[in-house]
Design brief:
26 strands, 1 helix, mainly beta, 4% helix, 7-stranded antiparallel sheet, globular
Length: 292
Amino acid sequence: MSKIVTDPSPVVRKFLAKLQYEGEGATVRRSIGRFEMKYLDPFLLLDEFSVSAPAGFPDHPHRGFETVTYMLDGAIEHEDCEGNKGTIKAGDLQWMTAGRGIIHSEMPSPQGTQIGLQLWINLSSTHKLIEPMYQEMKSKDISEATDPQGKVKVRVIAGESMGIKSPIYTRTPTMFLDFTIKPGGQIRQYIPSGWTAFVYVLEGEGIFGNSHSLAHHLLVLGNGDGLVAGNGHHSKAVRFVVVAGRPLGEAVARWGPFVMNSEKELDEAVEDYENSKNGFEKAGRWKSESAF
């Protein structure tokens, strides 16, 4: 049975995700990871990306965190140095644990504009150097629920909502929910007390706690045990994600694609990559098919 929201969380901060260039010619709307909000423990980055070939995110490394790619429209071709390769299509999820090190590429399918979200989740010091791994789900395998009135739909990416629990294992305990609310609909979504939580609006406009918001805005939630959100009487549906995670409370040392706990560990990560060792053994010789 889903837990009840008794102390709704207010919106304590709100801002527009601004356009910037990333990768090679790709455009992203970045909210977390900009100078306004460099870190929202345990979340390192949130991008809403929009990319068309030949732009994209060619071969690059990661260490010390997880990347979550959730496609909204189109498809991304993924390939890594361990021989993993596949296509992340609309509605699909890829939950990649970079751990001690991975090198990969994320390039758009040839036709049209590919749109999605990418979230970076920090790993604790005990998990930063684990072996890389993937959890992947096709759109058809992601569980959905609808309220009895047919006004609210949720896709449960991670965590639990409306009595449905995702099978995704989150080393840093995380909730990731994709809601669509039709006019007149409302949700009361429980969020564990003490967790960091935010809303990112994808389409339309809605009311979130004490705040009205439009698309492409990030809303940080304050103390409480959940979100109350609704569509009000707008003529179109509002679509948004609710993301929450248990803070790590650890020091963060960060440089580009490497996230560690100290400057010394960060220097070691860069040295390992430059010298093709300790998780980056293939750094000097691997290239994705898209690189040729």
